[in-house]
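Entry 12.
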Amino acid sequence: MIERWFPPGRRRAAVVLTAVVVLVGAGAAGYLYLAPKPAAEVTVLGFNWTLEQGTVLSGPHEGILWFDTATINDSGSANGFPLHVASGGSLTVTVHIDNYDNVSHGIVRVHLDPPLVATGFSPPPPADIEANDDGNYQITVSVQAPPGTSTFGLGSLEFS
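Predicted 3D structure (tokens):
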């Protein structure tokens, strides 16, 4: 009695090879389909802060703004921008403030235009910037822009 395998000879090797390729291909396709995909990102180009403040009433800096400038622009590669953040994610920005007045001033309100939302502060308002000193103020920002877009933060800091 002669046993026969189906398919015989070379055809059997081709069928087995084809079956292996199909199984490996299906496994790879399933992995690629089910593998976690990175979150779509938003490009944050920078921030422009308006400082709502008064003027120095006396002393060597009399008549100038408390912080010597009405706006702080924090953008460009020298300041680490652009940043790429997942849509719905957050980042922390630091605003450096120089107080030229001979009295302390407190940050009493922080505003940021959507789609960026200020969600945390360090230290929390009212945060004092000491007389004739400088300080860093950290703001945690939630990025609510749609994935794949770019945004520029426009905000304000109000002082007392």
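Annotation: The longest strand covers residues 41-52. The mean pLDDT is 87.
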